[in-house]
Amino acid sequence: MPVVIDEVQVEAARPRGEGEAAPRAPGPQRPLSRHEFREMLRREDHRRARLEAD
Predict the structure, then answer these.
(1) Computed over its alpha carbons, how large is the radius of gyration of the chain?
(2) Range name among 19-23, 34-38, 45-49 with the lowest pLDDT average
(3) Rounded to whole angstroms, how far apart are CA atoms 36 and 8?
(4) 20, 28, 31, 40: most buried, per Cβ within 10 A?
């Protein structure tokens, strides 16, 4: 049964059924390689520099 909290409808917590998977956070399922990590940092720096330029 839906529950209303601050005008937003939220599905009431219920026990998971048999065999039903727990919700998982999206993202890579393996650790980033050193190269991938550096690339991620480079993109983040680039994005931050663009935002600060405005």
Answers:
(1) 20
(2) 19-23
(3) 39
(4) 40
